[in-house]
Amino acid sequence: DTRQAGGSLGDREIRDVVVTVDGLIGAQGGKAGGCDIPGGIAAVEASVTAVDPLDSGFFRAWPSNESMPNAT
After folding, report:
1. DSSP 32
2. Pairwise CA distance, residues 30 & 21, whole Å
3. What is the C-alpha separation between 70 and 62, in angstroms, rounded?
4. Burial of residue 26, with CB atoms counted within 10 A of its CB: 0-12 exposed, 13-18 middle, 19 or more buried
5. How many domains does the chain have?
6. Domain of 25?
7. Contact 30, 19 (CB under 8 A)
8. CA atoms 6, 10, 13, 17: torsion sign
9. What is the pLDDT of residues 22-56, one digit of tens each?
């Protein structure tokens, strides 16, 4: 569980989420010791759920070392 501790996302907000550095996962709201994700991984599967959204919209995710894609 790596829920972001920063609360709800705002309109067009971009938020980085680290998944491979154990020391940073706790600061994001996840398990303090990390999630046992090995270094050198090639992919991550993540589920995103909108809970009580205030408006319609979309969610887009992409690797942090790449440009934002045009498609959701």
Report:
1. T
2. 12
3. 11
4. middle
5. 1
6. 1-72
7. no
8. positive
9. 667 767 766 776 677 777 777 778 788 887 788 88
